[in-house]
Design a protein that fits this description.
The chain has about 290 residues and is mainly α. The chain has a single domain, classed as UbiA prenyltransferase (Tetracycline Repressor, domain 2), CATH 1.10.357. It is built from 14 helices and no strands.
Length: about 290
Amino acid sequence: MSTSATGPRWWQSIRVTLEMIKIEHTLFALPFALLGAVAAARGTPEAWTLLWITVAMVGARSAAMAFNRLVDRHYDSANPRTATRALPAGDVSVAFVRAFTIVSVAVFVAAAAMLNWLTLALSPVALVSVLGYSFTKRFTSMAHIALGWALSIAPAGAWIAVRGDLTVEPVLLSAAVMLWTGGFDVLYACQDTEFDRSAGLYSIPSRVGVARALWIARGLHVLMFAALVGFYILTGSGMLGLAGVVATGVLLVYQHAIVRASDLSRLNAAFFTTNAFVSVILLATIGGGILLAG
């Protein structure tokens, strides 16, 4: 990106920052939040509520990703796989990303306040979770579960936004999201096994090796599928919902079938494409089944 003597133009910085945090990957978590809202309403939530749930999701994820890039920028610069990211490459300034993070946090809190008093009261918990994840690789191999926890807040938060309470149903959906995320993050971390060891960072692959890490990821996804089945049963979303559960199971099997300890070349296909499909499919099928039943 070209710069002037006074640095990049602000709109160029926004574009680069949005590319850096992969704003399009909000698709991973947003459908789960919308599914939580539909399940809570047992139908179509109010448009106003859906609007602020979406704004809250975008704000929280943008803050989390930008903050992660900030605190990990020195590790990213040392890792050949990530050295070309915007901050290590100097395509955007630390000051701009810091300001972007602060604005994103403010957007999230404002959206939480527009929903109800409980979402606002719990917003600090959500922020500690989504921002605090960035530090977990410095001291625990369970960082993958910490990331899962951060994303699992979305469906429970959306349920609270609609109903103002919390029951078993959203807890099961959140558990499914946490285990799903933890599993695919273990897979993704396999490509940084040697770097994590040399940098003193913690991950399951760097601790137990790639082959065992793949089995742990599979185990997490088996548990995720069990939680998803429980959520499906409670929703009463019928054959359409069942089709979504089955399709998710097939995608999980496919995801693990194309990634081997001896061949991680198809990891990006497993991580990005498959995961985007899972969340959209579940929203369309279980969410659609709830709407039809209502």
